[in-house]
Amino acid sequence: MADYKTFEHDVLVIGAGGAGLRAAVEAASADVSVGLICKSLLGKAHTVMAEGGVAAALGNADERDNWKVHFADTMRGGQYLNNWRMAELHAKEAPDRVRELEGWGALMDRTKDGRMNQRNFGGHAYPRLAHVGDRTGPEMIRTLQDHGIHQGFDVHMEVTVTRLLMDGDRCAGAFAYDRNTGELMVFKAKAVVMATGGIGRAFLVTSNSWEYTGDGHSLAYQAGAELLDMEFVQFHPTGMVWPPSVRGLLVTEGVRGEGGILKNSEGKRFMFDDIPPLYQGSTADTEEEGWRYVVGDRDARRPPDLLTRDHVARKIVKEVKEGRGSPHGGAFLDIAWIKEHIPDAEAHIKKKLPSMYHQFKELAGIDITKEPMEVGPTTHYVMGGIKVDGDSQMTTTVPGLFAAGECAAGLHGANRLGGNSLSDLLVFGKRAGQHAAEFAKENAHVSLSDDQIEAGEREVLAPLNRDPGDDVGPYRLQGELKELMQDKAGIAREEEGLAEAQAELVKLKARAEVMGSGGDRSYNPGWHTVLDLNNLLTVSEAVVLGAKERKESRGAHSRLDFLEKKPDWGTFNHVITKGAGGEMEIRREPIPEMRQELKDIIEEQG
Amino acid sequence: MKTATFKVWRGTSDGGDFQSYDVEIDHGYVVLDAIHKIQAEQANDMAVRWNCKAGKCGSCSAEVNGSPKLMCMARIDDLDTDKPITVEPMRAFPVMKDLVTDVSWNYEVKASIAKFKPKPADQDDGTWHMEQYDVERPQEFRKCIECFLCQDVCHVLRDHHLHDRFAGPRHFVYAADMEMNPIDTGDRVAQLRDELGIGYCNITKCCTKVCPEGIDITDNAIIPLKERVVDRSYDPIAKLVGMVTGGAGD
C-alpha cells in the first residue's frame, strides 16, 4: 500500500507563475475549491524574470492602436502559424486583463496625463507595452500573489508533480512529492490546469530558471495530450555573454525600445542590412528616422533594431560568424549613445532600465550609461506546447485537462512578440481558470484507481533506491543534454545534427532511466534532478523531432540546409502524440481557415 | 582559474556543521555558482533554494561570511579568497536542510495584513487617474523581491524571536506600499500598532543596509508608518480633544 497524503480540490492548478495564479484567481471566483501547486515558494516563479512589459492595445501612448492592429502584429510575428482564434481573443481581452491589475494593487508607470504608460517593442506597430521600469514581471506576479492569497484557494509550495492521474481518458488529478520532506502526495481533482511554463533548461545558454524543465509539456503528453509546433523555440537576441557566470541572462528588449542600438565590432549598425520582406515597408531607412520613432514621431518608421526576435537573433549570429562580433562572441548593444540626443541621459537610463543598470554593474562590472553591453542569443521561450482549444484552453484530447501560458501553444505561432507572453498568461490564465471551474461543476464525479498511484510511487522513489553507480550523476547528465540541444537543436539546425541528436537522446534516456540519486528524501536536489530529467528528455525529443520534420526556415526555426521559407509549409502545424507502442509520433495538421473578418483585418493592416 | 575554499553549513533541524569544499572559480563567479559546482561534483544532495540567478526572485538568501546576502549577487571577486568563505542558512528562520530554511511564517504574516482595498474607479475605462509623482514612493516598496534578508538581520526577530508579535521589515514595506497607494482606502494603522508590533522597531536600519533592492526601508516605509501610528494613538492634543468631545482614537 502506497504511503501518501491525499488532497481534494475541484480545480487543481499546477504551476504558480502568472498563468497559474491568474487561473487560480478566476477558478476561485466561480465558487469551486481550488488548489495551487508551486514548484518553488509562492511568488518566485519564472514570471519574475519578465522585464520589458505586458502588451495590450490600451491606446494610451498612441490612440491609433486597437485590438485589430495588435492581432495583425501578432499574426505577422508568428508567420501566420498562430491559432488565429487565440490571437483574436488575446488582442481583444488583453486591455481589460491589464487594467484590472491596478484594481488589485499594481502600479504601472504613468503617462503625463496619469494613465498607464506604454513603450515600444519589437514587432508592435505602436508603443503597446504597459510596464514598470524593467521589472514588469515581478510587478505582475506580486500583484497576482497578493490578490490571490485572499481568494480562498489552497497553496501547496515546493511541490513537484510527477504524473497526471486519470479516470478513464479524463484527467482526474496528479501525483506529486513535497520537495522539503519527500512526502508523497495524491491530488484528486475534477479539472486540472497546467501552467508550468517552458523548457529552457534543456539548453546550455538560457535565460530560464531551474524550474523550466518542461514538466507540463511532458506530463500532458504522457497523459495523451497533443503537443503543437515544438520546433519553435525562441532564442532571445540579447542575453548577456560575459562573464561566464551570467551567460544567457536576459537583457530586456526594453533597452532597444528606449533607443538602444546594435553594433558590430566595426561600429556598424548591421541591423539596417537584410530587412525581411514582411517588414520592409514599416522599417526605418536611416538612423535618423529610427531615432525619431523612438522619441515618438508618428511619421517615422521603426528602427531595425526593433525587428522581431527571430530575425535580430539570426543577424547577431551572422555578425559573429563573419568575424565582426564583440570580444566574447556577441554584438554590442549601446544605450549610452542616447546622450547625443537626451540631455540627462544617465538619469534617464537608470530610471527606465534600473534592473539592467544594476545587473551589468553588479555582475559584469559595466556601467551601461557609459559603455555598450555585449549581448548574444539565449534560449528564452517555447512557442510550441500543449495543444488546446482556443476558447476554453482545454486540451484537444484529454477532457478535464487545461493548459495556459507558456506550456500551452497556439497564440505565438513560429515566433512570439515581446510583451505578448505576459498578456498571454493573463488572458488565457483567466480563460483556463474559468473553463476548468465550469468543467468541474459539470463533471463532478471522479475516481482514482490504486494501480496508477502505486505506479506513481514506484517511479518517484526509484532513483533513491538505485545505486548511483559510476555514471556522472544527474547534474552532469543534464549538462550533457544541454550541450547536445544547444549544439544540434539550437539557433541553427540541420538534418545531420538533428539525426545525431535523436540518436544521442536515446542513449541519454537509457542512462537517465537507471540513474540513482543517492541521499534521502528530505530536500534532496540530486533526487529532484533525476526526476526532472524525464521531462527534459521528453520535451527535447519533441523539439528535435519537430525541427527535423520542418525542412524550411520559418520564425524561430532556422535550418542551415533549408534556408528559405516554403510558402506551402505555412499551411499546417506539427502535432506530436504518443503512439500506441509508446513511441513519439508526428503529423501535419492543416491550419483551419481564418474567418473572413480576420482576413480582412490582416489585409487592412498590411 | 583560481581555487577557493568554501565552508558550507550542512545539516538539519537536529543540528549540523560546516564542511569544506575546494572549488575552481571561473570569471565573474558568484557564490551561487560555487554552490552549484559543489552540488554537481561533490555533494549531489546539498540543499539550496534558487530560481532566477539574477537577483529577481529572492530565493537564494543565505549568510556569506556572516552577512545576509543573495548568493546569486555575491561576487566572489569581492570576497577574500585567501581565507575560506563561509556559507550558512539564514538564522532568523528554522533550518530545514543545509542552506534551506522554513520561511513559511512570512507567508502567514502577510496573509494576516488587511488587504488592498481600492476606491471606485474614476475613469471611463474602469481605471484610476494617477500621476507618476503619486506612484513613485509605493513603486519603491514594490521592488521588494521577498528575499527576507531584512527579516533575517532584524534583531527583533533574529535575537529576540518575537515572531509572534512583530511582523518584521518586509511586512512594514508591504503595509506601506498599500497605505501609500493613491487609490487604496484600507486602514492598517491600528493593526500595525496592535498586531504587527511596529513599536518594537527601534530603527537601527540593519534592514535597509542588507536590502538587495536598495529600498530605504527604515526611512521611507517604517518611520512614516510609525508616524501614522503616533498621530492616531499617541498625539496628546488629539487625545485631549478626544476626551473633551467624547471621540477616542483607535
Descriptive overview:
- The complex is a heterodimer of chains A (606) and B (250).
- Chain A has 606 residues and is an alpha+beta fold.
- Among the domains of chain A are: 239-379, Flavocytochrome C3, Chain A, domain 1; 467-568, Up-down Bundle (Methane Monooxygenase Hydroxylase, Chain G, domain 1).
- Helices cover 35% and strands 16% of the residues of chain A.
- Chain A contains 16 helices and 18 strands.
- Chain A has helices at residues 18-28, 67-77, 84-102, 136-148, 215-222, 254-257, 287-294, 309-321, 345-352, 354-364, 420-442, 450-465, 474-488, 495-513, 525-549, 596-605, and strands spanning 5-14, 34-37, 54-55, 118-119, 129-130, 154-156, 159-167, 170-178, 184-194, 227-228, 233-240, 261-263, 331-334, 373-382, 385-386, 401-403, 572-578, 584-590.
- In chain A, strands 1, 2, 6, 7, 8, 9 and 16 form a seven-stranded mixed sheet that branches.
- In chain A, helix 2 crosses helix 3, helix 5 crosses helix 15 (525-549) and helix 13 (474-488) runs antiparallel to helix 14.
- The mean pLDDT of chain A is 96.
- A five-stranded mixed sheet of chain B has the order 2-1-5-3-4. In chain B, strands 6-7 form a two-stranded antiparallel ribbon.
- The model of chain B has no long low-confidence stretch (mean pLDDT 95).
- Helix content of chain B is 35%, strand content 16%.
- In chain B, helix 3 (132-141) runs antiparallel to helix 6.
- By secondary structure, chain B is α+β, with helices and mostly antiparallel strands.
- Chain B has two domains: 2-101, Beta-grasp domain (Ubiquitin-like (UB roll)); 104-238, Fumarate Reductase Iron-sulfur Protein, Chain B, domain 2, CATH 1.10.1060.
- Chain B has helices at 31-41, 104-112, 132-141, 149-153, 155-158, 169-179, 189-194, 206-210, 217-233, 236-245; strands at 2-12, 15-25, 61-64, 67-70, 85-88, 95-97, 100-101.
- Chains A and B meet through helix 3, helix 4, helix 10, helix 13 and helix 15 of A and helix 1, helix 2, helix 3 and helix 6 of B.
